[in-house]
């Protein structure tokens, strides 16, 4: 069973989600999305899978948001900006066999962790 977390160690929500995944006995795939940004297609899939709008998945308080003039940008421009500037991606996204979730707060990960097999 694969669990993937798009992780930023500087983010308390991301650290909390990872802590809960590990405490559940899972060995997740940890992707440092700042160092290894998802492709545009993967990012769009995460956002859709989590049932979010592209704007909901964006960190609007980051300096790049204002610098790039994204307040009125269309979804395509927002996706391109997030891929080019991964600090704009809200975090953490977690993917499990039960679904995709933006885990803000980190405790939301519990809703998509599978039951551990005995």
From TrEMBL:
PANTHER family for this protein: ARSENATE REDUCTASE, ARSENATE REDUCTASE-RELATED
Family annotation (Pfam families): ArsC
Superkingdom to which the source organism belongs: Bacteria
Protein name: Arsenate reductase
Gene3D superfamilies found in the cross-reference section: Glutaredoxin
Keyword check for ATP-binding: no
Encoding gene, per UniProt annotation: arsC
Keywords: Arsenical resistance, Oxidoreductase
Single GO MF descriptor: arsenate reductase (glutaredoxin) activity
InterPro entries found in the cross-reference section: Arsenate_reductase (IPR006659), Arsenate_reductase-like (IPR006660), Thioredoxin-like_sf (IPR036249)
Enzyme Commission designation: 1.20.4.1
Protein family membership: Belongs to the ArsC family.
Chemical reaction(s) catalysed: [glutaredoxin]-dithiol + arsenate + glutathione + H(+) = glutathionyl-S-S-[glutaredoxin] + arsenite + H2O
